[in-house]
Design goal:
Elements: E1 6-10, H1 15-27, E2 33-37, H2 41-49, E3 60-63, E4 66-69, H3 70-81, H4 96-114
Parallel strand pairs: 1-2
Antiparallel strand pairs: 1-3, 3-4
């Protein structure tokens, strides 16, 4: 794997999203990923640089100069983490409009089901080096 870091932009106010960030950080044995919230100044800069709609509220994965969103981003992250999680990448053969339908359904209700932070996600001291 090259030394370039993959950047994950996430909804920093979403408890479900914050859970998954912690999940990825804990399992990122190859130190591949860096994180920033969509709401942050850095997140907005990256969205602008890569010409992604700044009102997006789903996960965004930037690998080099390629941007992935929603279910494609999630599956690519799992693949990169490796191990048993990488088998889920096989679901990428399902057309994105079907995968993203389910992704969008969960995203639509994520605040109701998992709650919302009043402020942006703040990494603890063990995670600080993983954030932009």
């Amino acid at each position: 794997m090259n030394s370039k870091k993959h950047i994950i932009l996430f909804d920093g106010e979403c408890n479900f999203c914050s859970f998954w960030v912690k999940y990825v950080v804990k399992r990122d044995a190859k130190d591949v990923f860096r994180f920033t919230s969509l709401q942050s100044e850095k997140g907005q800069e990256l969205l602008d640089k890569h010409k992604v709609n700044p009102v997006i509220d789903s996960i965004v994965l930037i690998e080099e100069d390629t941007v992935y969103i929603k279910s494609t981003a999630a599956f690519r992250i799992l693949k990169t983490l490796g191990g048993f999680r990488s088998v889920f990448y096989g679901l990428i053969v399902i057309p994105s409009f079907i995968r993203d339908f389910w992704y969008d359904l969960i995203a639509k209700y994520r605040y109701q089901w998992f709650g919302k932070n009043d402020c942006e996600f703040i990494p603890n001291s063990n995670m600080k080096n993983k954030f932009l």
